Amino acid sequence: MDTHLTNTSTFAELMGISSQTLHHWYKEHLSGYEPIGRIEIHQNDITVKSGNKQEIIDVPILLPENVGVAMAIDEKLIGENFYTIFTNRETGRIAFCGATTNSKHLEQAMCPLTDALTQVQTITRDMSPSYARLCNNIMPSAVQIADKFHVIKNLMDANNAVRVRYRQVILEAKRKALARFKEEESIRRKESERDGVKFKAQKFVHKEEKLANGETLSEILSRSHLMLYKFSEQWNYKQQFRAEILFEKFPDIAQAYKLSCIFRAWYCKSNVGLHTLQIEKGLHDWYDEVEMADIDEMLNFKAQVEANEDIISAYFIRGNTNAIAENLNKRIKQYIASNNGVREVDFFFFRIKNFFASTSN
Question: For the whole model, what pTM was predicted?
């Protein structure tokens, strides 16, 4: 149980005993949680001012020995709160976990790590202004690198937003047609009552054009979602045919897809180590294409890239990513799912600390 993030119900089933019994015995007698573990989980909590009140921020994990030269910082929704998790990219060990994303509160909570933070050479993070301020203040000499996962996610969100915009137009037209139909039916009903004629209700039918592949506009917009996340060479025959029709009907979607593919090709691992001038030229050429396309969603993403150009381009120095931090988040998410959520937050973090922060595992 100490070395496997598994639901106690799984072990209980294998052992042929009640899951409640095993959970009780493990938590209360075998794990070390009672009484020392419960106290340790809150020994690094901090008190901050929140308006006219004071608020306690939980800091369940704070281990200076897990700080290394390459670190990652990310946020994770656990229970009903967002936690900041500070992870060693080389070992995968958590050095800090606190229930806040506020930079000032994080500075206060991470104060005991001050000496250890002097060794940090690189820190990968998302493009949050809060994490930017934090890293500038507590690790001023570390090279900050935008996490590639978050950058690409924002790109694909912008790309997908164009498709969603057009789908909403189709759905709005259907909604308005239904409203007109209801109004017409209401008028017919009143006329029937006035004339003493039995009213026969009609069924609403919204006819949509059938495209060459047998889909309607709303269907092709809905079914092209995952297709737009892939490069065209990864499409099967049906997807290729669907793309041809989609792009002919909606040129903006075609242009946004093209721009997303160009950016992803520029941001690929094979370009790591290229001269800075080559990297800058590729990015600024992409800027020009986005400007010419004049698509709001892509312009918004471009503005985000421009504001974070330095930390995005820093990826090409060594190819550092948040892969370990994202994998850790995935495993924590799987643990939460297998336990049907976080019902006992303190005990949850006690187990997380033992598994992801202890050097004995």
Answer: 0.82
